[in-house]
Design goal:
globular, Rossmann fold, alpha/beta, 15% strand, single chain, 6 strands
Length: 168
C-alpha cells in the first residue's frame, strides 16, 4: 500500500511587523496580496478590549479605501465577539475557525472570491495564524502581540523564538 507523502512546513512568516498599522497597501501590492484574513485577539486588539484602538480603526479604513478585501478569521469560541469586530470593520467573519486547520482559511478565500495566493493572514501567533496560512499557500504577516500582559506570554514567545524571523 502506498502512503501519501507529506511535507513538513517550517512556520517562518513571510514578514514581521511591530503592529498591524505598519502594514501598508504598497507592501500588500508588492506581495501580490488583494485580501487580508485578520485575527482579533493579540492582533487587532488586546484579548479583553471590546474594540480595536483608534489607530487600528484608521488603518482598517485605509485598507478598505485601498481596495483590500477584509475578513475576520478567529479561533474565538464566542460568535458574539467575532461578529461584533467584523461589524465594526464591515466584513465577513468566521469564529471557531480551528486555526491552523485549512478549512477556515479556504472557506474565507472562497467567500471572498480570491485564490489563497492572493490572501495574507495577519496574526500574532506562529502555531495558529502563520502555520495555517502557510498550509494554504497564503502570505503570512506576523505582528507583535498586543497581549504581552497575559501570564503565559513569555512561555509562548520562548517556544516561538526560533521561528520569529521572516522566511527567506
Amino acid at each position: 500500500m502506498m502512503r501519501a507523502r507529506t511535507t513538513m512546513i517550517l512556520p517562518f512568516p513571510h514578514e514581521i511587523y511591530d503592529d498591524v498599522t505598519a502594514i501598508t497597501p504598497a507592501e500588500l501590492r508588492r506581495l501580490g496580496v488583494r485580501g487580508l484574513l485578520l485575527d482579533i485577539d493579540g492582533t487587532l486588539a488586546r484579548t479583553k478590549d471590546p474594540a480595536p484602538s483608534e489607530a487600528v480603526s484608521r488603518w482598517l479604513g485605509l485598507m478598505r479605501r485601498s481596495g483590500v478585501a477584509l475578513y475576520v478569521l478567529s479561533n474565538n469560541k464566542s460568535p458574539a465577539r467575532t461578529e461584533r469586530f467584523a461589524q465594526m470593520i464591515g466584513c465577513s467573519w468566521r469564529h471557531r475557525s480551528r486555526k491552523p486547520a485549512r478549512r477556515g482559511f479556504l472557506a474565507a478565500a472562497e467567500e471572498l472570491g480570491l485564490r489563497p495566493e492572493e490572501l495574507a493572514i495577519v496574526g500574532d501567533q506562529i502555531w495558529t495564524d502563520v502555520l495555517g496560512g502557510l498550509r494554504c499557500n497564503m502570505k503570512t504577516l506576523m505582528v507583535q502581540s498586543t497581549d504581552t500582559y497575559l501570564w503565559y506570554f513569555p512561555l509562548r514567545r520562548l517556544v516561538e523564538l526560533p521561528f520569529r524571523r521572516p522566511r527567506r
